[in-house]
Amino acid sequence: MITNISRQLTTGALAIAGSVAAFGFAGAAPVQAQAECLPQSFNNFKTNPCRKGDKLFTHINSSGIGLDDPGNFLTITETVLPLGDLHTFTFTPVTPLLSSSGTYVIDYTIEIVDNPDTPGNELLTKMFSAFSAGYTTTGQTDSGVSLNKTVWSDAFGGSSLVGTSEARSLDIGGIGSPGLTVLIAPNILKLYVRDTFVISSVDGSVNSITNDFRQTTYIPEPSAILGILAVAGAGAFARRKS
Fold this sequence. Notes:
Elements (H helix, E strand, L loop, with lengths): L1 H22 L11 E2 L3 E2 H6 L2 E3 L2 E9 L9 E7 L6 E7 L11 E9 L9 H4 E11 L8 E8 L8 E8 L13 E2 L6 E10 L8 E10 L4 H20 L1
Parallel strand pairs: 1-3
Antiparallel strand pairs: 2-5, 3-4, 4-7, 5-6, 6-13, 7-12, 8-11, 8-13, 9-10, 9-12
Helix pairs in contact: 1-4
């Protein structure tokens, strides 16, 4: 009987996965329509979402002195690691940011999508596991730097706060860069990211800010597993009774 239930469990899981794939997550943008994330001007990213592997990045809003400068640069990289791929979002201003620059805010989303260059569907096999924030400086300019990276899973300023990673200079009570790594609850496939950064010291400057995202293998919801087991068990019981 255990063998039969196992077979039905496998069949049921495949059926569910097939159904999800068949519907194609209609609410998501077609991944084939998205450009690959190449090194680019930040202005280009503002109007053109891009994909790196199985991650889709979309600019939502940004504010701050000089953010419209065509020399501002963005790189998005993917590093394949044994414990899960690492995606890194790096914003580099055309000139280092100073205390006179004021406060900057960058809002964007990152979501897992089906990578057309792989045989599997990452929507069914991958999920986020952790994130962190960091910045780079030159020489003794790591002074008064504050980068706050806040992430939600439902909307900017929403009710589902994932967490905050804060990178701050030692002279203002921080631990420097990078900030602490924040773990992400299972089965979250889209993140709403807000970076807020400012330099409060006249001796400080920032060359770039970075956001790291790690992923791991997708874990089915317990309710889905229980549902499959219930169906398999009910079928086996019915056959035994007959």
